[in-house]
Every structure is written in structure tokens, then in C-alpha cells.
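User: C-alpha cells for this one?
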Amino acid sequence: MSFFRNQFANVVEWEEFRDDMIFWKWDNPEVKKGSRLIIRPGQDAIFINNGKIEGVFEDEGEYKIDSDIIPFLSTLKGFKFGFNSGMRVEVLFVNTKEFMVKWGTQQPIMIPTPQLPGGMPIRANGTFNFKVNDYVALIDKVAGIKESYLVDDVKVRLMAVLDQLLMKWISREGKDMFNLQANASDIANGIREDLDRQVMDNGMTITGFQIMSFSYPQEIQDMITKTASHEMIGNLQKYQQVSMTDSIASGRATGGGAASDMASMMIGMNMANDMMKNMNQGQKESRASESAPAASPSEGGKKVNFCPNCGAKNEGANFCPNCGHKLSL
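Assistant:
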């Protein structure tokens, strides 16, 4: 009898496990007496009967179906195995990890902007994360008709709406078309919420959405870079000076050639002009100081004399009020 029981017994496990597989349905519809259930790390095993969840088992390990599993099933606790019959039940294995998916726009997205009548062509790339969070919805909408489900299946669905969501959230509230990276966090949060609504009916949730970078056509990128450089340097003259200095320092204008000589000459002339301006300014200040009238010794705006005989203070009188000595004018 033991021989027959063993030959009908089976092992319920996720065969050929894949990291990019969201769920996999055990393909043997009948669980025999003496069968074992194996749950590996990062997996949940869901027993389903007639489309209804009978039990969810999350702890990794090896279990006996008839003694460790059946007593915990909701409506199959009284199930009795016959000699050559088994329990007709589906077992769905679910990957419980958080999946990360890279995304990128296939074609430029034309974002409406007043500066360009045809719209601003923008590309973007980044990542998003998702995981299964509702087994009832997953079984009702997806697992009920599929034997397995891949990360690519979710990616295809979300990429179909991502361009529209990027356009929506970039255009919202008048985002600066030429500095989108500064608003990347706000744009990403809005897109994550909208994407979550796309997958929640299938028992999944978007746990994160990140925008790594925005990119513009080369001519627009060059304009942005040049404008930023001008603003950072302050004015065109200094920008030219720094550009030529960088050219010499980087070796692009070395070797005694005409370009190097011209760059050095222009920098020298600019430096000489700055020195002359400073010298002229100093001379003007010096002449202004010399032309100012010298202040006469006074106190309170009145001429002050001191008697040469007694040294008494006198304020403009011809004779000393102390000793009567005649004061010279």
C-alpha cells in the first residue's frame, strides 16, 4: 500500500523559478495524498478552489499537504484522500519581491510651449518599482486566465500610457521647459499616482517612480548650456576670457600656433585694459583730492589765534583779552 501511495504522491513547488516572473500556477490540477508543499524565500503559495482562495501560506519551508496544509484551508478541512484520488485544487505561487523596471521614451514627446509653436521635443528615462499587494484582485483579473505573468507584461501596459502622463505632468502648472530636472521630483510623484491607478485593479501597486534625466535636441541643449554659462560668468566679455583661458589650459590652443598666440594676445590686451582703467580711476581720485580747498584751523567755523605773549586763546580780536598784547593780523 505504501508503494502505491508514494507513486501517486507529488511535490507542489515553483519549478524553474524566474526573478522576472510575478506569479506561476502549479500545472497539476490534483494534489495526491502524501504530497509535499515547498515554499522558497520570496514566495507565497495560494490554494484556490473553484476560483476562491482557500488559504495563503507565506512561511518558507517544506510541508505535508494532508497534515500541515489541509487543516488550515477554509472549506476543505474535512477533505479525505481516497486510495487513488486526490484533492482538486490549484496552487498559485506569487513572487513577493519588489520589482524594478527601467523605462525610456521611444520617441520624443512634443510638449506644448509658447516658445516653440510645434512643441518642445523631449525624451526622458528612469525606473519604476511595483509589487503585488492584493491577491484577490490578482486572481480575479489576471491569474484566473493566465498560467504565469511576467514583469514585461506590466511594463508593456504601463509604457502605453507613460508618454501621455509625462506630457500631462510636465505641462501642468507651467513647468519651466528649459529646466525640467529641477521639477523632476514633482513630475515623478504625479506620474506614480496615475500609474498606480492603472495597476491597482490587477492587485498590484506602484511603490516608486523615478526620472533619471530629461534630454533635449542637441541644438536646444547647446543653447541651454550656453545661456547657463553666460549667466554664471556674468557677461559676454568675461565669458570670452574664461573660454580662451580654458582653451589654453586644456591644451586645445597650445603649440605656438596662430590660435594660441591670438588667444594669449587677446587675454593680455584685456588684462592691460583692466589695469589702465584702474590706473585712470586712481588718478582721477588723486586729482579730485588735490583740488579740494585746504581747511583752515578753526573751531566752530571761527578763526582761532593764540597770544604770543601769554598764550591765551583769542577768537579774531586785535588785542589779547588776557594781557592786552597787540596781535598781528
